[in-house]
Amino acid sequence: MHSIDTTSAPRIAVDAMGGDFGPSVVVPAAVDAAREGIAIALVGDEERVNAELAKCDADGLDIQVVHASQVVEMDDKPADALRRKKDSSIQVACRMVKQGEAHGVVSAGNSGATVACGMFTIGRIRGVQRPALAGILPTEKNPVVLIDVGANVDSKPQHLFQFGLMADVLARYVLGVKDPSVGILSIGEEEGKGNATVRDAFDLLKASQLRFIGNVEGRDIFTGEVDIVVCDGFVGNVALKLSEGLATSLGRILKEELKSSWISKLGTLLSIRAFKRFKKVTDYAEYGGAPLLGLKDIVIVTHGKSNELAVTNCIRMAATSYRNNATAHLAEGLAAHKGLTNKDTKSAA
């Protein structure tokens, strides 16, 4: 982990070629972030990036363009991308962070390749067994952190325990939650429910300094009664995609219902402000992306279909993580729970 002067302006390396829309969305999003005092390194095809920059009012902003000759496509396998595309925009961005030329990476590109580059180029914090992706989801109250949402599909109890520790740091130092509550996703609220891995992880979380509230069920994720929900990456990714699909389908159903009669259309007009507020609360773009927690520096992965707002919010999140020295706080949290992290459990045998 680099010793960084957090009083200086954060410089974020942005994968300009990532996502379904590439520079046409990423570049103007980065310009918006630069207007807020965040230094930007746009990494990608220099000609294409500069062409998009020319369309923006970027005069006087701290934006550099770093050329990368290759692009990791969305269907590339992570291992192949690491071996064969060493000059890809995501690899160059991660190397900039590794070399101390930037403080964090943001990418809307191939998530598997981004995770792999983060792990093998930037590296893990000492003591972290498995880095994890933390999804930030809307609820009836404040956002909830769901961890892991896909970096690990076969986790041990110690991994789940560390996910809770890492998410606690994210909630405190990035999302501003004063005393976050932590639950573990299971098939029942009672202690002793769930498979062996969940039960053993329950014991580790219960013995920690975290504000652990016990088991939570899938229906509890969106109530806002818990700040952090810990789960295996396979389960978390299914839960994330299910919630995204459900929200999209409900939106379409509601839209069709509101157009079904003149009374419904009138009601829509009268409730337009409420619908706008609802859309803002449930829009994934408001929460940016998923931080990859457990690395020596900041890496944030966002959806391939991300719009400008989502990418800008990812850059803001990366800058906030840097300013609040989140990685150092994570290392401190891991050190404070070293005994529990290394504790043997039945499931880990």
From TrEMBL:
InterPro entries: FA_synthesis, Phospholipid_synth_PlsX-like. Its EC number is 2.3.1.274. Keywords: Acyltransferase, Cytoplasm, Lipid biosynthesis, Lipid metabolism, Phospholipid biosynthesis, Phospholipid metabolism, Transferase. GO terms for molecular function: acyltransferase activity. It is found in: Cytoplasm. Pfam families: FA_synthesis (PF02504). It catalyses: a fatty acyl-[ACP] + phosphate = an acyl phosphate + holo-[ACP]. It comes from the Bacteria. Pathway: Lipid metabolism; phospholipid metabolism. HAMAP family: PlsX. Belongs to the PlsX family. Homodimer. Probably interacts with PlsY. Catalyzes the reversible formation of acyl-phosphate (acyl-PO(4)) from acyl-[acyl-carrier-protein] (acyl-ACP). This enzyme utilizes acyl-ACP as fatty acyl donor, but not acyl-CoA. This is Phosphate acyltransferase. It comes from Pseudodesulfovibrio sediminis. The lineage of its organism: Bacteria, Pseudomonadati, Thermodesulfobacteriota, Desulfovibrionia, Desulfovibrionales. The gene is plsX.
